[in-house]
Write a structure and sequence with these properties.
It is built from ten helices and 29 strands. The protein is of the alpha+beta class.
């Protein structure tokens, strides 16, 4: 298949070169030599391939009902002379140790400078010895100029194997993925992106990084998705300055003017529709309502005709100054209206976790962005994240997503509450081997007895 592609490319380039040479009165064979596609690809590959790193992380996980450590692997690319490595958030998520293998065989530890779950990006810094030689690095290009049909290469370490390069085209330069396009669209490519390629660079024919490989499919042919470099530029700048991405939060849920999926179409070509506002959000407190059409934010015009336009509007809102009033010009029932909204810091988008040995379960903080269904019942609290099986919690009938309200007669609101209660109960198991858990399950309060007399860790 690749031979056919190269043959087709050679014919196209030859025809183009001959026409150009004829117009210029030059030599067609010489023009073809200057446009040899294989040389273009090889030159582009050589600019970036030495900067690709293989990443191995030791990651802590609480999903199984106990804290376990596991190895995960992925890819990254060095983007600065001081050893900054760009990769995915999900590659280094909850990592307690990060090691990188460079192209020349050098191995180095790395620290996580910062990460952002919303865009699935992370920035590392290699801990290079003082006497080590210079580090190769790649340059970020402009993803906005990409168009369908442009050739790209996906680099990385698929399946934990040695580095590889796959080639393809940009299948879609502005792909909207529902539930995965909060602040950015995606680059879709048919260059093979497999597990382990995550975090590796997507490279154009000029040898520039135009994306970070993030998502792939294992069925239905080669179809992968990369975070565009122009989104990466915003994220890297924030991480370098703050160690994280300081997204602002308004609580606005937006809808395009032409909503094909819901079969709803609004008149006009300007603005974006408010679908709803989150409870206790700055937007709701400012008085914005569903079906309001926002025309300007801080004097800047906004427009979202289709779903593909929404991420750019959300990103603009996410970069608004925090705790400073911003003017919103809008239309409500066809009449102009102005309101002031004060965005606040978005903060964490997932809660901290805690292992509870002998109880044989793990718990997690409720977070409005990660667990909106639980946040509806309790805006602050702790829920059961994982149940160990076999174990005491599993035998008792406790379930994942049960919200802890009380343990015996003690209120539960934070992880510190759980730590104190667990220590006390474990210290007195001999005299009090049973606990009564009051939990909210689907909004209904239940009482569950947890018997701790059996120690599964010794069986």
């Amino acid at each position: 298949m690749r031979t056919l592609i190269y043959g087709w490319l050679a014919m196209v380039l030859a025809a183009g070169a001959a026409i150009a040479a004829e117009k210029a009165g030059g030599d067609a064979e010489g023009a073809l030599a200057r446009l040899d596609f294989r040389q273009v690809i090889a030159a582009a590959k050589d600019k970036v391939f030495p900067a690709v790193v293989y990443i191995k992380c030791l990651q802590e996980s609480h999903e199984s009902g106990q804290k376990i450590s596991q190895e995960v692997a992925g890819s990254g690319v060095i983007i600065s002379a001081k050893g900054e490595v760009l990769t995915n958030w999900h590659v280094v998520e909850k990592a307690v140790e990060v090691r990188c293998l460079l192209y020349d065989g050098r191995a180095m530890d790395a620290k996580v400078t910062g990460s952002d779950k919303d865009t699935d990006l992370a920035l590392l810094e290699l801990q290079a010895p003082a006497d080590s030689k210079g580090l190769p690095f790649a340059v970020l290009g402009n993803s906005d100029v990409l168009k369908e049909g442009d050739f790209v290469m996906a680099m990385g370490a698929p399946w934990g194997l040695s580095r590889s390069v796959s080639m393809g085209i940009v299948a879609c330069a502005r792909r909207f993925l529902p539930k995965h396009s909060q602040y950015s669209l995606w680059l879709q490519t048919d260059a093979s992106i497999s597990p382990g390629n995550s975090g590796g660079p997507l490279v154009n024919t000029a040898g520039e990084v135009v994306g970070v490989n993030t998502r792939g499919v294992l069925y239905g042919g080669d179809m992968g998705f990369a975070v565009p470099s122009n989104t990466i530029q915003h994220i890297v700048a924030q991480i370098r300055e703050f160690g994280k991405v300081n997204w602002s939060w308004t609580g606005l849920q937006l809808q395009p003017l032409k909503d094909f999926d819901r079969n709803i179409y609004f008149e006009g070509t300007e603005g974006v529709i408010v679908a709803e506002t989150d409870p206790e959000s700055p937007a709701r407190r400012a008085g914005l309502q569903a079906r309001d059409r926002i025309l300007k934010v801080g004097g800047q015009a906004v427009a979202a005709m289709t779903d593909e336009d929404l991420p750019a509007v959300r990103r603009m809102l996410g970069l608004l100054p925090k705790y400073k009033p911003v003017r919103f010009d809008l239309l409500r029932d066809g009449k102009p209206l102005t309101v002031e909204l004060e965005p606040r810091e978005k903060g964490k988008v997932e809660g901290e976790e805690l292992d509870c040995p002998r109880w044989d379960l793990t718990v997690r903080e409720i977070n409005q962005f990660d667990n909106p269904d639980l946040f509806y019942y309790r805006t602050q609290g702790v829920f059961i994240y994982g149940i160990k099986s076999p174990g005491n919690a599993a035998n008792s009938g406790l379930r994942p997503h049960d919200i802890l309200v009380k343990i015996d007669d003690k209120e539960v609101a934070t992880l510190d509450d759980i730590k104190a209660i667990r220590k006390d109960t474990v210290d007195h198991i001999a005299t009090k081997p049973r606990l009564v858990f009051s939990v909210l399950r689907s909004g209904l309060l239940r009482q569950v007895v947890l018997d701790l007399s059996r120690d599964y860790s010794k069986e």
